[in-house]
Amino acid sequence: MLSLNNVEVIYNDVILVLKGMSMEVPQGKIVGLLGSNGAGKSTTLKAISGLLKPENGEVTDGNIQFDGQEIHNRDAADIVRLGIMQVMEGRRVFEHLTVEENLAAGGYTRRDSSNLGRDVEMVYDYFPRLKERRRQTAGYLSGGEQQMLAIGRALMARPKLMMLDEPSLGLAPLLVREIFNIIKRINQEQGATILLVEQNANLTLSVADYAYIMENGRIVLDGYPEDLRQNADVREFYLGLTEVGQRKSYRDVKHYKRRKRWLS
Amino acid sequence: MELFIQLTLTGLTNGAILSLAALGFVLIYKSSDVINFAQGEFLLVGAYITYALIVQFGLAWPLGMALTLAAAVGVGVLVERFVLRPMIGEPIISVIMVTIGLSSLLRAIVSTIWGTLPRSFPAFIPSQPVRILGATVGADRLWAIAIAVIMLGLFTVFFRRSREGIAMRAVADDQQAALSMGISVKKIFAWAWSIAAATAAIAGALVANIVGVSGELSGFGLHVFPVVILGGLDSIPGAIIGGVIIGLLQTYTGGYIGQGLNQVIPFVVLILILMIRPYGLFGQEIIERV
Description:
With 264 residues, chain A is of the alpha/beta class. Helix content of chain A is 40%, strand content 25%. Chain A contains 11 helices and 10 strands.
């Protein structure tokens, strides 16, 4: 459904952030994109959703295809109309608007305005807590409620592909669980394809059908979650598990070597 | 008592017109964070276009007003496209300087076409005197209040209910998030500038109908600043209430204390408000979750 081929992104004409990024997101699946800070995960999402321009970024090489159309460097509004919706990092709800108005803003591109009311009910169905707070100013919601609102708002556009940028950021572990379960439900019940960007590797591998791992602007590893869980590098660097009983000094050397191979 | 009612009605008229002019100012500030120093000149241009259409070309006034509105929307779109859009991404102070330049430009264009002499405006709105509670006011002033109230009501509904209105407020809150919803920020800015020009044009026509057209009208626009500072730069109800308060304050001081002082009082209020409540009566405080 979505494919990135060798995408290169440059900010301010000099800073090379994505260095030949390739990945596939098949229809109806949940795909995880993991990586540490500054690996280029958010930039990848912005390249897809057309939000690079306001930050002076540009796709300079490679291409991004969605349903057979090339979408790189197109206007953000066009891309939303094609059915790609991004839930930005840090929630970014419209603080001075009420919950209901936030949802209305999410449905801005919809042509069938008569169905909007029904979809608002659908969002409340997934997030009953939003219904209780429908007339409240979004800025005063709790962090978890804001994240729910951000996801609900994106859902209002009835996207074919929903991209979530770190939905677990700054939330309590229980809430994170709840939100991930709802993401899974949205994927199954609405048939929305989901691209999930996360730092929380364990959780992501538990919901995703397939996952990619990014370092330094490109994919270094990809595979099915069960395979990735077995991978020694993933276990050590992303899941925080180490093999017991090995001599420490020897492992440190190995550690260095592994890192080195990944960065090259 | 008669004097009081007389002054109140006059004040309400001025206030209603000020509110209309301030509404456009607030809109531009809300959606794009730009302080539009050319708002007074929008009023001036609106007044002269109405004058040209109704007096010089002799059109019927409803038609003249409709064409004025269309022209104002055109001016707004042009300004947004050719003056403001190239400034996107520049520091906000540069954009503000550009609006100051724009104000000089508009004033110069007006005086090139129509000259600098004040002209009387044959009243196109019926102005026979009406007696209310013993005081006498021109019907045109009552019309001005009615028109302003209707316009302000329409805009309030527009911002609360309509898709474009909510989108405008969304852009004001978080431009990038609005972009990610598929809201075209450029389009919203064009909307904001044309609505601002249109409301200013209506305000300009209403003032001109009462006091005649001259370059002085842009000075009326200067009173928009005390209004928006008092009401809060980004609040629409604030613009309305601020307008009424400043309008009343002006006529009361003019009537009870002395002419001349009424020109000063709005700016005294401006300084006081800036010292006590810099975000105004209804301005948005920054929401902080604790």
